[in-house]
Design a protein that fits this description.
This protein is α/β, with parallel strands linked by helices and 400 residues long. It is built from 18 helices and five strands. A five-stranded parallel beta sheet has the order 2-3-1-4-5. Strand 2, helix 7 and strand 3 form a beta-alpha-beta unit. Helix 2 packs antiparallel against helix 9 and helix 13 runs parallel beside helix 18. The termini are far apart.
């Protein structure tokens, strides 16, 4: 594909008339036979998965690996497997509070030191959302808050495909176009972290959302095998092959146990990222090192970016905590976030695909090892989020 052809899929923000409305991308005409085949296939797949969509929703219990450099300044020795099951586990909000209190850190905990919003050089939110973390829910919430709080909300035009990382030229192209949007705005796109100042522009307010890395991959596995989602991906990419019945029928546990390539091989050397397994990639950036899966170096770069650049990285696993922190740390954009969200939560629950989240012991052990650094980053983010919440809600934890 030529450079011009590749850039034809880039967003043209001047053409966006209303926030969050997709611009139609012309697709090649398909033959009557292919359309008929697609319709029959989708009907068949929907029939096959009727029972699966009603399968039990059991919370996955993953043995979390200790964080070598946690947001609380702890080493792995402080987070033993023996302590992980206790009520005061530091990977919970209450446990984080108790640890800060017992070590004397609570008294000096200052929200201003935990908030990077003041480092932003323009009144502009850049949400480079991670896949399968509830990002569509946050996107919808931002749209609603934009109407209420008086800022413009934009998102990118969906492209049939995109590379794992963007080139320097693509980064600059993105930053230049976002500059044209002006201030008092928020922008959403599946993109890796971008250093705006490197391209001669003012630093924005960075935010993101996360989810447990293994839960994230399980969700992606079944999401991509949902008949409707698969049919939509065929329409976006006419050259995509139609998969076999076995592809849709294989349970995640069986796929991982058999190490079916490329979907269920989670070794460090596997370049596959179709299930968005590289949790740290979006938070690390577009350097080659950021493409490494479950890498100690990539993890540390991502942690550094979070500590230095991101105002808030939240999670729908802690909905109230996340919304409260967004309200307190970025009030210009997220004032009344909890009120708007809880007024009609069904508006923000989209594309939920029911699936079995149970993990067999051997599969769980393999994945816990394969995602050890990704889990470390996840725990680091959650501990930082809890610290941010505690810093502005200390009174809620005081005994009566």
């Amino acid at each position: 594909m030529s450079l011009n052809a590749e850039r034809s899929y880039k967003m043209k923000l001047r053409d966006v008339e209303n926030a969050f409305k997709y611009r139609r991308i012309p697709y090649p005409k398909r033959s009557v036979e292919l359309i008929a085949l697609l319709a029959i296939s989708c009907t068949f797949f929907l029939f096959m998965h009727t029972n699966k969509l009603n399968s039990r929703l059991k919370e996955m219990e993953v043995k979390l690996q200790p964080s070598e450099f946690s947001a609380l300044g702890l080493t792995g020795n402080h987070i033993s497997g023996h302590d992980a099951g206790k009520h005061d586990d530091i990977n919970t909000l209450h446990g984080t509070y108790q640890y800060l209190k017992s070590t004397g850190q609570l008294e000096n905990l200052d929200a201003t030191q935990l908030n990077n919003t003041h480092k932003a050089e323009r009144d502009f939110v850049f949400y480079n959302r991670l896949e399968k973390t509830g990002s569509q829910s946050m996107t919808r919430l931002i749209k609603q808050l934009g109407e209420r709080n008086g800022f413009d909300a934009y998102r990118n035009i969906v492209r049939p495909s995109r590379p794992l990382t963007d080139s320097y030229e693509d980064e600059k192209d993105l930053v230049d176009q976002l500059y044209e949007l002006g201030d008092h705005a928020a922008y959403v796109e599946h993109a890796n972290w971008v250093n705006f100042t490197k391209h001669g522009h003012l630093r924005p307010i960075y935010i993101n959302m996360v989810r447990h890395p293994i839960q994230k991959v399980i969700s992606a596995y079944y999401y991509q095998r949902h008949p409707l989602i698969f049919a939509q991906s065929l329409m976006r990419n006419p050259n995509k092959r139609i998969e076999t019945k076995q592809y849709f029928d294989t349970a995640f546990n069986d796929c991982v146990r058999k190490r079916v390539p490329p979907y269920c091989v989670f070794d460090n050397h596997n370049p596959y990222n179709g299930d968005w397994r590289r949790f740290s990639l979006h938070l690390c950036g577009n350097s080659e090192i950021c493409t490494h899966f479950n890498s100690a170096t990539t993890t540390q770069i991502a942690k550094s970016n979070i500590e230095r650049e991101y105002a808030v990285v939240g999670s729908w696993e802690d909905t109230n905590v996340t919304l409260a922190v967004l309200e307190a740390y970025i009030p210009r954009f997220f004032a009344n976030a909890r009120k708007v969200y809880y007024s009609k939560t069904e508006k923000f629950t989209v594309n939920t695909v029911s699936h079995d989240t149970h993990l067999d012991k051997d599969v769980e052990d393999y994945l816990s090892n394969s995602f050890s650094f990704e889990i470390e980053l996840y725990l680091f983010i959650k501990q930082r989020l809890y610290k941010q919440y505690i810093a502005v809600h200390k009174d809620e934890f005081q005994s009566p």
